[in-house]
Amino acid sequence: MSARSLDGPKASERLATGVLWAVSALVCCVLLWILGDLVVRGAGVLSPEFLTEAPRDAGRAGGVGSLIVSTLWIVALAVLIALPLGFFTAVLLADHRASRLARCVRGCLDVLNAVPSIVFGLFGSGFFCVTLGLGYSILAGGLTLACMILPILIRTIEEALRAVPSDLALAAAALGVSRWTRLWRVVAPAALPAIAVGVVLGVGRALSETAALIFTSGYVTRYPDGWLDSGRALSVHIYDLAMNIPGADQRAYGSALVLIALLLIINTCVRLAARRFSARMAP
Amino acid sequence: MISARNVGVRFGGQPVVRGISLDLVCCRTTAIVGPSGTGKSSFLNALNRMTDLLPGATVEGEVIVGGRDVLAGAEAPPGLRQRIGMIFQRPNPFPMSIERNVHLALREHGERDKARLRAITEDCLRRVGLWDEVADRLGAPALQLSGGQQQRLCIARALALEPEALLFDEPTSALDPLSAEVIETLIRSLGQTLAIAVVTHDLAQARRLADDLAVFWYANGCGELAAAGPIEEVLAQPHAPAVTHYLSGIPRLEVS
């Protein structure tokens, strides 16, 4: 053991450690503050009825049950549409990582990722709602969100696939295993936990989206009849309550609390599923 | 039998090895030795067209398997690699159960019958001496096995395809000495029935394993074959001083 470690760390090192701790604590505090604020102001409205009923009186009464249903529909559609597209694009990018096509696609994705969501909303309402004639519908909202989360899905899945050791694909090839089976049975399962992280990020972005949905899935507050019906997402509801409806502040906070809970539940489920799956694969 | 005729490999147009003519015949083990960068692994990869997967690699010459030139496309890579298996330096079991490691390629090559799959699995795990160690946990993740066990599993899943030849690319250099010894013993026993090539930097290992020796040497800017033949003959031949010095690392034949 060196003399220095016997003396204990120097003052400058202690200071550095202190600063690091303080900054980390500050970040946690911000999160806790926001959550605490939501709970203090919104927990009062939570009740079984709040979670099951549709809003009444423009949201000053009733609940958010119909909005939870609409939100889940929209997000599920977005992920179901974006995941296969994103997966196969990512496979292409990971396979031809240095080609001109891949560089070009990657550049486009980075730009797309930085496009403000209101632009996606305008595009969605113009293309899906009007040109394709879907009108204000959950499907149009889902498609718009799918476009929006594609870049983040593709980039995370590409990273996930590239992180799988090339040994595995080579070993499979050396056994005469076809490219398709290599991808499907060897590389993709090995990348699954990291792919799940990408899905979680995508879901998070989709759940929190307001601007892209106002013009596409609409703001009708009743329970939707199906995916071609209009339905209001929770985040749109929060925006509406906070900005347009006097006297609904507490319900806005309550709705936000429900949204956060939904996010946590979905994230936990995806991660648990991925972990269970990979636990069967590796110790 | 695999016959390499004037085989060369280039990466991005730059030759790393060229002009290799070498026969791998049944029931003989060929050790391929030589300094790093003389294209031993590249040559090995050319034999079952694994070079197709290496970015920028091109192969010239002929590789005759069963009387036909496989480099000219006489046989599709999946079938070729089933006949000529390959074992890598680092054990690379798939992140799935022990059993599925063996089944994956078998299913791919059309074996679907559950009872047959089980029988083949037991047979090839027995051949690599792994059966008694894992019989009660075939469903356990293969990555739980030790390095040496993982390497034996990799050999087992290649054996399951009933290959005619196995190519080993430094099969023990990532293993501890005890595991390496087990793998060596295994290669010797497989050498009774298969054509085997072993790339190795361990000259004592070459002595222990090889019937034939191929020496790759750096000449004219890339790897070439300096000598090849039965190991005793190659060692008895005169060589360039550097080669002679290198080969002096191979222990004399032990007289018992």
Question: Could you describe the 3D structure shown?
Answer:
The complex is a heterodimer of chains A (283) and B (256). Chain A has two domains: 3-45; 48-281, MetI-like (MetI-like fold), CATH 1.10.3720.10. Helix content of chain A is 76%, strand content 1%. Chain A has helices spanning 3-7, 11-42, 48-52, 65-95, 100-114, 117-131, 138-163, 166-174, 179-207, 211-214, 234-243, 249-281; strands spanning 55-56, 61-62. In chain A, strands 1-2 form a two-stranded antiparallel sheet. In chain A, a hairpin with a 4-residue loop joins strand 1 (55-56) and strand 2. In chain A, helix 6 (117-131) packs across helix 7 (138-163) and helix 9 runs antiparallel to helix 12. The longest helix of chain A has 33 residues, at 249-281. By secondary structure, chain B is an alpha/beta fold. Chain B has ten helices and ten strands. A six-stranded mixed beta sheet of chain B has the order 6-7-8-3-9-10, sandwiched between helices. The model of chain B has no long low-confidence stretch (mean pLDDT 93). Classes of the chains: A mainly alpha (283), B alpha/beta (256). The A-B interface holds A 165, 167-178, 181, 185-186, 189-190, 278, 280-283 and B 48, 50, 53, 77-82, 85-86, 88, 90, 92-97, 104-105, 108-109, 141, 143-144, 154, 157-158, 161.
Secondary-structure element series of chain B: EEEHEEHEHHHHEHEHEEHH
- Oligomer state equals heterodimer
Largest sheet of chain A: 2 strands, antiparallel
**Count of helix runs of chain B:** 10
* Name of the CATH first level of the largest domain in chain A: Mainly Alpha
Shape of chain B: globular
- Biggest interface pair, residues each? A-B, 23 and 30 residues
Which class do the helix and strand fractions of chain A yield? mainly alpha
Span between termini of chain B: 32 Å
- Shape, per Cα inertia axes of chain A: globular
Mean pLDDT of chain B: 93
* Portion in helices of chain A: over 70%
